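Q: What structure does this chain adopt?
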Amino acid sequence: MDAQPTAPLPGPPRPAAPRPGAPRSTEFGPLRIGWDDRVLEPRPWTTAQAEWGAALLTAGPRGDVLELCAGAGQIGLLTALGAGRALVMVDADPVACAWARTNAAARGGDGRVEVRCSPLEEALTPRERFALVQADPPWVPSDLTGQHPRDPLRAIDGGPAGLDVAVVCLQVAAGALLPGGSVLLQLGTEAQVDALGPDAARLGLALQEVRTFPRGVVAHYRPAAVPGASGA
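A:
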């Protein structure tokens, strides 16, 4: 008699989803930022990104600050605090938005900070314009995310080249800048900035400067000059 087919053995049990850890807090410049392990831990080096943004605002147009992929909100909050501007923070993750609201309230709750929990492309009205856009997208290439086991995957996975969300950030920023405004985009490497060159040009953004920090880079963009436009 033929042997009966053997039923496949069950695979290993699927690991349980991690439980959120206890709330933590981190000093970020003069701010104390709350977070937990469901969102990306604030990186101390990104205080420099916030300070750069505040400096750009002193010489830029009058207007508010927009932060895209805000996470717990530390970069946008420190930028706005340093420049005395109102702030709109956008993130698609409800947990990040909750922490951003908590941190905004801890800053003083003066009503000049708004958190929008939304996909980036749907967060703004067509007529909204900002003097500065801070963009902090996930920029780790997908096949390298395993090197960062302590970080939430959603907060670091930027797609095959690490640029999927960065391109969306530039698209949103390009349509939301006041004349003379600036975009500061955080990425992992200068090579990623170079790879974004065609997208930035297509969107009418000109690269002004790239600053390198111990764990990432920040690129500064402004609207490109229109050929034939008069400065008069």
